[in-house]
Task: structure prediction
Amino acid sequence: MVAGFSRWCAAVVARLPWGLNRLVAPTFLGFALINGFTFGVDLALLTALHGWLGLPVWLAVTVAYVCAFGLSFVLNRTFNFHSHAPVGRQAAVYVLVVIVNYLAFILGVGSGLTALGLEYHLSRLLAGACEAVYMYSAMRWLVFRGREAVHPEPELAPDAP
Result:
């Protein structure tokens, strides 16, 4: 299942038009799929905690964020970056990356836009777009970096003539 996910991402990227297959890494597609799912988990938890249970926005966002990013770490480590490096160092770096992300994009952009009167779901979506670029870059080049951390991208068999 894990190898199948990577092969599928590599196959999709290989078929991108206009030379995008040379620019888009299969791990980027994997990240987008995994984090799209975990972002949905984040929004569902945010809605449940704030919309239904009445928790303050800052607390609901924080709890939902921690749950979603824990899930994102596990899924990206396993399915996308295929890391077999010791989890302790990666988890420590990931926590630092997530703290910076939380302060800059979630509290800074997300809560700031909500405080300015933008609806909290829309604020979270805009903050999510900013954090996606930051988080992929940090996961690829900081958290799961190095040959010992990541297996090489799966290669596709050349098309038969």
Notes: The CA atoms of residues 28 and 136 lie 7 Å apart. Residues 147-161 have pLDDT under 50 and may be disordered. The helical segments are 2-14, 26-52, 57-80, 87-115, 120-143.
